[in-house]
Write a structure and sequence with these properties.
The complex is a heterodimer of chains A (239) and B (217). Chain A is mainly α and 239 residues long. Chain A has one domain (2-230): Orthogonal Bundle (MetI-like fold). Chain A is 76% helix and 0% strand. The longest helix of chain A has 34 residues, at 20-53. Chain B has helices at residues 43-50, 74-77, 94-104, 109-122, 138-150, 168-184, 196-202; strands at 5-14, 17-26, 32-36, 58-65, 68-69, 80-83, 156-160, 188-192, 205-210, 213-216. In chain B, helix 3 (94-104) crosses helix 4 (109-122), helix 3 runs parallel beside helix 5 (138-150) and helix 4 (109-122) crosses helix 5 (138-150). In chain B, the strands form 2 sheets. In chain B, strands 6-7-8-3-9-10 form a 6-stranded mixed beta sheet, with helices on both faces. A 4-stranded antiparallel beta sheet of chain B has the order 2-1-4-5. Chain B is built from 7 helices and 10 strands. Chain B is globular. Classes of the chains: A mainly alpha (239), B alpha/beta (217). Chains A and B meet through helix 6 and helix 7 of A and helix 3 and helix 4 of B.
Chain lengths: 239, 217
């Protein structure tokens, strides 16, 4: 019990003192997860929209694969990316293993199915009359699609937040492809794992508290977006 | 000479049930045509086919200009519009809903503001312009839908039961707007209603849809 209390005390000191190592780890975590999420939205949203709005061949198969991807075990993703980027792998010539880009790739693979699937669901659930209204008001096919996507914006944002939640809490994949190199590829989750192994609980608890705070913030954002969807606050106006 | 649709032997069936059969008609430009008939006889289907929202199984809809049938392209679709029975209000402000059609046509912001402001005034929604459109009443939604269609100054305006399920006050406002539009003779109006008195008040031509065909009343 003393160890835990002492750990919490030291952890709060690190947080309050804005310890440089702590800040570096947090900053890298944000950069890696932010980049992974951005890529997941850039690729996942158009694919989700395409699957929702167009009658593509093999749509059912693609959706099944994406939904399966939502439950991908992070260590399997880590293994796959490791094999891909290792010296003898097909992308080994890029020398990306044990670098932040490798961690971004792994987190992207984890977030992409979530963003795609939830975007697809949000767009599919838009009332069909919205699309018809856009048509009769003279929208071209692209404007029609953008109108439907805009109506689904709160559901799409929920998908993005869920994707962020998934990647920030993930440890297995990034530790395999990032290597947990101090000052280079060490992020919050991997540091917690390492410092706990070493019996150094101060930094581990401090990062644990920050991760929990981040998780709380993500949940609050999640709820706020859902409330906005119901009440329509945040209506865009330019008049 | 205004724009108006001509139906040439239109047929349409849903799940094997024939709704429209060899239906032909020439709608007169600049006049208000009111379609009546029991539920399920194909009034809305006919309107959606005329508004190019659906295709007939057989036959064709022709919009003529200079004796030539116009292509069913975006240019033609932007000269006509349909007020859907459920309106299809977008999850944004009343102003942005009405401005939608003008924005996608690339009009300048100043012109959009002027036209939307004027139309909101005429339908009695000027004080609601900043309000979220999904929060206004059903009657106000219908007025919003009408404003959203009228602001485009269409040459053919299709109205699918514009006063269904709304109170007397909103119904009277909508009728007044349609009458004003009719008097200006700027557009061909083709409207569906179940109210015979309303049909007489608004229509220059009363039509009945029966056995999959249109008949003059």
């Amino acid at each position: 019990m003393d160890t835990i209390l002492q750990g919490f005390g030291s952890a709060f000191k690190l947080i309050i003192a804005l310890d440089s190592e702590l800040l570096k780890i947090i900053w890298l975590s944000f950069k890696v997860s932010g980049a992974a999420l951005l890529l997941a939205v850039l690729f996942g949203l158009p694919l989700g929209a395409l699957l929702a709005l167009k009658r593509l061949p093999l749509r059912g198969v693609i959706l099944s694969l994406i939904n399966t991807g939502m439950g991908l075990p992070p260590v399997v993703v880590g293994l796959f990316v490791y094999l891909l980027l290792s010296r003898s792998g097909p992308l080994g010539f890029m020398s990306l293993l044990y670098t932040p880009p490798a961690m971004i790739v792994a987190q992207f693979i984890l977030a992409f199915p979530i963003v795609t699937s939830l975007s697809h669901t949000a767009i599919v659930n838009v009332n069909p009359i919205i699309r018809q209204a856009a048509q009769v008001l003279g929208a071209n096919p692209l404007q029609e699609a953008l109108t439907v996507i805009r109506e689904a914006r709160y559901g799409i944002m929920t998908g993005g937040i869920a994707g962020l939640g998934r990647v920030t809490a993930e440890v297995g994949a990034v530790i395999m492809v990032g290597g947990n190199i101090a000052g280079y590829t060490r992020v919050m989750t991997t540091t917690i794992a390492l410092e706990t192994d070493k019996g150094n609980f101060d930094l581990a608890i401090a990062l644990g508290i920050i991760l929990l705070g981040l998780s709380l913030l993500i949940n609050l954002a999640f709820r706020a977006v859902q409330r906005m969807g119901r009440t329509g606050s945040g209506v865009v106006l330019w008049d | 000479m205004g724009l108006s649709p001509e139906l040439a032997q239109i047929s349409k069936a849903y799940n094997g049930r024939v709704i429209l059969k060899d239906c032909s008609w020439v709608f007169e430009p600049g006049l208000a045509h009111v379609l009546m008939g029991p539920n399920g006889t194909g009034k809305s289907t006919l309107l959606r086919i005329c508004a190019l929202l659906e295709s007939p199984d057989l036959g064709s809809v022709n919009y003529l200009a200079g004796g030539r049938s116009l292509a069913h392209d975006l240019e033609l679709k932007r000269r006509i519009t349909l007020l859907l029975p459920g309106v299809g209000v977008f999850n944004t402000s009343v102003f942005n809903n009405v401005a939608y059609g003008l924005k996608i046509r690339g009009l300048q912001r100043r012109e959009i503001e002027a036209r939307v402001g004027a139309i909101l005034e005429s339908v009695g929604l000027a004080d609601k312009r900043r309000q979220r459109a999904l929060e206004i009443s059903t009657g106000q939604s219908k007025r919003l839908g009408l404003a959203r269609a009228m602001v485009l100054e269409p040459e053919v305006l299709f109205l699918d039961e514009p006063t269904a399920s709304i109170d007397q006050e909103n119904s009277e406002i909508i009728e007044r707007i349609i009458l004003e539009m009719k008097e200006k003779k700027r557009a061909t109006i083709i409207m569906v209603t179940h109210d015979p008195a309303q049909a007489r008040r608004l229509g220059d031509r009363l039509l009945l849809i029966k056995d999959g065909k249109l008949w003059s009343r």
